[in-house]
Amino acid sequence: MKSTVHPFHIPVDRRRFFRGMALASAGFTLPGFLAEALTVAPTVTQGPYYPLAKNIPLDKDNDLVQLNDSLTIASGVVTYISGRVLDASGNPVPGALVELWHADREGDYLYSTSATRNSACDAAFAGFGQYLTGSDGRYRFRTIKAGLYRGRTRHYHWGVTLPGETKRTTTQTGWNETALDLNGAVWETQNSNDNVFSTVSNATQRATMLLDFSEVAGTTTGEQEATWDYVVGRTYTEPTYPNGGSLVVAGVPVETSAGASRYRIRVPAYAGYSYEVYGNPTFADLGWSALPFSLTQDGAVDRSIHTATAEGSLDLYVDAKAVKGFYQVSFRVPGANTGTP
């Protein structure tokens, strides 16, 4: 039987979070940061709880704590995790799709086969987020400390799809600590007997999966943070359109029939290709956050990915204004992952 959920409110809103993303990039310029030997991230099971397409929230950005601009935030310890996607030579991979999903504070996933999402999952918790890395390969997420469920210790699920590739590579990260349940008792499953972490035979790889989280400086609410670089085991070569990747496109201001402001993003489309829109509030190197859009100037903003049915010009309309006027449109070739396992 689950314990009562006690909402964990913090004074950090979404706007402050996105403004803070640009500042986070400073931490990656410290001398010696790249000098450490690179350890390729182990590939482990995607697991049964990658959300189905109908479960993925329209608001699938890199803030899993707060859906849209709701004043209600997810219950749990607010946690920040950031890092870079690097190739085997240590070069940053720009435009890599980074996906994060995990259980809520109580150990429930949003995944469900019979409803739009699992009704037991915290309704304020996004449960899933996406991010496109910037020119320095950087990503950043705000989420909560993952909950526990039988057979597993605390963990995050990660999926990384390099531009031009058709399949995500999946791995997991955990906490380098003793797992305690919500009542403070030692959990029956720890890193040493977890059915994923314990199966990674390479000790160096296994150590890189178990992260050290520390309290965010100046916080009064117990927020935590950690950094983690995802290293792929191959050298990356940037693809050219239309072989999968992304385009930076200017948004053109338009008005709906009701007088509301929108921005039209026009791209050349290919049949069977899937398109997503990302915006960056600061246009910094840190990366790009997913945006929902409409296919018409007056239509409802009701999707965050669209698969073209014909070749030609494709117009996508967003409500969110880009500070510098530019958006990044990600495109995936036919057969690439489109938000389903």
Notes on the protein architecture:
The protein has 341 residues and is mainly β. The protein has a domain of 88 residues: Jelly Rolls (Sandwich), CATH 2.60.120. 5% of the residues lie in helices and 28% in strands. The strands form three sheets. Strands 2, 3, 5, 6, 7, 11, 14, 15, 16 and 18 form a ten-stranded mixed β-sheet that branches. Strands 1, 4, 8, 9 and 10 form a five-stranded mixed β-sheet that branches. It has a three-stranded antiparallel β-sheet with strand order 12-13-17, with no helix packed on it. The protein is globular, with a radius of gyration of 20 Å. The two termini are 31 Å apart. The N terminus is likely disordered.
Shape, principal axes of CA atoms:
globular
The percentage helix is: under 10%
> Which H/E pattern describes the elements?
HEEEEEEHEEEEEEEEEEEE
CATH fold type of one domain = Jelly Rolls
CATH architecture designation of one domain: Sandwich
Mean pLDDT: 86
- What summary fits the major beta sheet? 10 strands, mixed
Report the β-strand fraction as a percent range: 25-35%
Q: What is the name of the CATH class of one domain?
A: Mainly Beta
Q: Radius of gyration in whole Å, from Cα?
A: 20 Å
Unreliable spans are: 1-12, 15-35
Indicate the multimeric state: single chain
What structural class should be given to the helix and strand makeup?
A: mainly beta
**Straight-line N-to-C gap:** 31 Å
Number of helices, where a helix is a run of at least 4 consecutive DSSP H or I residues:
2
Number of strands: 18
